[in-house]
Amino acid sequence: MLSQTNRVEPTDPNAHANFTSVQGRHTSSSVIKSRHSSSELINQVDYSENEVFPHEKKTLKRNLGLFSGISFIVSMIIGSGIFISPKGVLRETHSVGLCLVIWALCGFIALSGALCYAEIGTILPLSGSELVYMKEGIGSVHARIGDVLAFVFNWANTFILQPSTIAILSLTFSTYFLSGVMDSCGPPIELVKILAIFAIGLLDYFNLFYLDLLDLCMHCHVVILANVNALSVTVANRLNIIFVILKTIIILVIVIGGLVRIGKGTTNNPFSVALAFYSGLWAYGGWGSLNTVTEEIKNPKRNLWLSIVVALSLAIIVYVLTNISYFTVMSKDELLNSNAVAVTWGEAVLGPVSRGLPILISVSTLANVNGLLFFSARYCMVGARYGYLPEVFSCIQKQRLTPLPGILLQTIFAICYCIPSDIDSLITLFSFVSWVFSGLTFFATVCCRFTKPDAHRTIKVPIPLIILMLLVALYLIIAPVISSPNIGFLVAALVLLVGLIFYYLFVFRKMKSTFMKKINSFLQEFFDLTQAAVNTEA
């Protein structure tokens, strides 16, 4: 089932520059001349006689500068969360003042976590984020454990995290969009589900038959974004910047309107702070997203951490000011009884003009879908390089230099997650699994301090801060299970267990499949694919 051509055995903890040797296979002269001495190992890997993708190698282009990186992170963070999470935070704190403090503290946690990601990201500046950090960070302490954790993360990310998030945001987009064009009764859930599934389903048809993008613009937002990402990385980056500008306009309208009506809040004795943090941190989701595309960042050792610091600082300011605006316009009861606080805010402040607010919010959510489609396929590509997925997912389209197979896989599974259309359950599933691997990433950062002490670090996070983030992650994993146990946690555990079974069969035991080799060859010819080389230029 899984490719063994690309499979690399767990590296020796004492091996020199094991990551570049693991990623292997490069023909670019610019990389051969790299200042990293370990890059010389790349040309020592020979293709086997059964190699499905021989000879031609191309790399992803470095198109993301500092401003593009900031825009990318802001686009990933600021979206549906700020329009939904305030209700959950207030419900658990019962205090306007404490609620604002929680939002600021959530921003601090997100910023601290992002800085930890930035440190390990500059040590291992290759696409893949958590997969790479567990494979090479924890793997530097124990190679087999790092390999297992990396596989399980790739499994969970491919089949749970990314497609479920795309489904959640697509359903959110459909809900807000239909709310803007229908009467005040709101759209029926069946229509929301049909629109989301139909939209994502058109993606496969487009990629198979290469239909013109303009013919699809009126049909499906997910198809449009998948097409943009599959055709041009540069266009996708510019689209992200446009979306950031549009979302900033929305936020500024809310902030300014609230400041006009500023007033006093109330505070009560908070006993449910844990779940309040859970809601607030979900709104900050996306803080580590830029690490996923480090192969496409210009000068990653500088722009990676700087983009994170600037983007998270902006997000904290925007979120706190937005919540101040909410509380100056709405009472606590009004906010708690609202299913879409931004829409309720608009009805109170903008009056008839608020009719268009759901449409603008749907555009904001659309930006998050665009960002997810941009980097979720990169996870598949890096996982396939390690042999964790079929080899075809390590390939890029020759003319466009984009990971087309990964884009197709993610959209197909997103359709599957849209069928139940239970957004709350999907959010719970996503949050639980994501914080498991975030905690492991923080642990990998600590491991690198001892196993790679001489590695160049553009930023070095204090050890106490990393330990704090480990404790936060542990708390966010355990607290929801204790306070609100449900079947979703069991499902997540079962999916991870199935991933371990697949690891044992296809990675540890190295079971091979001639059928998958034929499928790889067919897809390579059909989509005009070539295996992507690793871009290690800093």
How is this structure best summarized?
Keywords: Membrane, Transmembrane, Transmembrane helix. The chain crosses the membrane at residues 64-84, 96-120, 159-179, 191-210, 242-263, 275-293, 305-329, 359-380, 401-420, 426-451, 463-482, 488-508. The chain is built from 20 helices and two strands.
Walkthrough of the structure:
The chain is mainly α and 538 residues long. It contains 20 helices and two strands. It has a two-stranded antiparallel sheet with strand order 1-2. The longest helix is centred in the first third of the chain and has 39 residues, at 143-181. The protein is globular.
Strand content: under 5%
The description of the largest β-sheet is: 2 strands, antiparallel
Helical amount: 55-70%
What is the CATH homologous superfamily assignment?
Amino acid/polyamine transporter I
CATH class: Mainly Alpha
Q: Classify the fold: give the CATH topology.
A: Amino acid/polyamine transporter I
- Taken together, the total number of domains comes to 1
Strand adjacency order, main sheet: 1-2
Element-level helix/strand string: HHHHHHHHHHHHHHHEHHHHHE
Q: Number of helical segments?
A: 20
Name the poorly predicted regions.
Answer: 4-55, 207-222, 262-271
Q: Report the end-to-end length measured between terminal Cα atoms.
A: 35 Å
